[in-house]
Specification:
The chain is an alpha+beta fold. It has ten helices and 14 strands. It has helices at residues 62-68, 89-101, 123-138, 144-154, 204-210, 221-228, 235-238, 244-250, 252-263, 285-298; strands at 2-6, 9-21, 27-39, 41-47, 52-58, 106-113, 170-177, 181-187, 192-197, 240-241, 269-271, 278-282, 304-311, 318-321. Helix 2 (89-101) packs parallel to helix 3 and helix 8 (244-250) packs across helix 9 (252-263). The termini are close together.
């Protein structure tokens, strides 16, 4: 049996402006995303039946994750319920792949979740993108353009996780439109982060409903210059997230979490995506690990805190016989 195995990474938004609301009901975005080494696990195999079979489990286990979040598993809390039908983006991605390329067989996918749901970290989008990559490997299809079109159809953040990086640089991307218009950004040195997730998620649609679109949107150019020149000491002057205030209004705990990151000495600190996860930038991996230990002892039970760093958006796809 041939399988494709990969580890989809999460993402953080270092810059996020909402310049306008579109006539189609979506919002225009202008954001810069980086991938980080907080990862899910995904295994995809081809099966003879023309169906999609998807199973999902939390890693290391549902009970352990619930315990870390201070939640009970009887019943399973909404935050930890991951669908296995067409509402899951992995299922949707594999089904669209079959339709697009006329695949008569089906897929069996096993998804191991570590990236929190409702965090603004792009876990579902990353899983979907890597499902497309695994399916393409299994069927030996080399059509990057079509995969990007499928990714944009599936979700706004999905195309980012298909963006390959040269071996000697770290890659990020500026995304505009609904997120499908990508421009590659490059750095020579990684950024180190501490990411904190409260034991509750935020609805992206609810945050956008609360948003007041600015009359004078912030220009991304100063941020882009600082980011690509590795001027980390200037990031606090140019980073921003327009969805921060709407997220605070819906979930005040996010404000307190961001304040805790700032008080720990990280600088700058920010909400990612529509939340509810927040992050701060550390000087190096040693400071990040030190702050994680400090925050785990200070924050209320149930807050996940992890040290991470930038990684390429595309993880290696390992094709093997199982």
């Amino acid at each position: 049996m041939t399988i494709a195995r990969t580890s989809p990474p999460a993402k953080l938004n270092l810059f996020l402006e909402i310049p306008a609301k579109r006539e189609d009901g979506y919002h225009e975005i202008d954001t810069t995303m980086v991938a980080i080494d907080w990862r899910d696990e995904l295994v995809v195999e081809s099966i003879p039946e023309p169906v999609i079979e998807l199973t999902v489990q939390w890693l290391p286990s549902l009970r352990e994750v619930a315990s870390r979040l201070g939640l009970s598993t009887d019943p399973v809390p909404e935050l930890l319920r991951v669908p296995t039908d067409e509402s899951n983006l992995v299922y949707k991605a594999l089904q669209r792949f079959r339709e697009q390329f006329g695949i008569s067989t089906g897929f069996r996918a096993r998804l191991g979740k570590r990236i929190p749901s409702g965090a603004g970290m792009g876990g579902a989008s990353s899983d979907a993108a890597h499902s497309l990559l695994c399916a393409a490997q299994l069927h030996q299809i080399d059509s990057a353009g079509v995969l990007h079109e499928l990714a944009a159809e599936i979700g706004s953040d999905v195309p980012f996780f298909l963006t390959e990086s040269p071996s000697d640089v770290l890659l990020a991307a500026r995304a505009r439109g609904r997120g499908e218009q990508l421009s590659v950004l490059q750095r020579r040195t990684p950024l180190h982060f501490v990411v904190a997730f409260p034991n509750d998620g935020l609805s992206t649609s609810a945050v956008y409903r609360q948003l007041r679109v600015p009359e004078d949107p912030v220009d991304a150019s100063p941020f882009l210059r600082v980011f690509e020149r590795d001027q980390n000491d200037q990031l606090s002057n140019v980073m921003m997230n327009r969805l921060t205030e709407p997220a605070f209004e819906i979930m005040p705990a996010v404000r307190h979490l961001l304040e805790s990151l700032e008080q720990s000495g990280l600088h700058p600190c920010q909400l990612t995506g529509s939340g509810s996860a927040c992050f701060g930038i550390a000087r190096d991996s040693d400071e990040a690990r030190t702050v994680v230990g400090q925050l785990r002892s200070e924050l209320q039970p149930g807050v996940l805190v992890q040290a991470v760093q930038m990684v390429p958006p595309v993880s290696p796809i390992l094709v093997e016989e199982e």
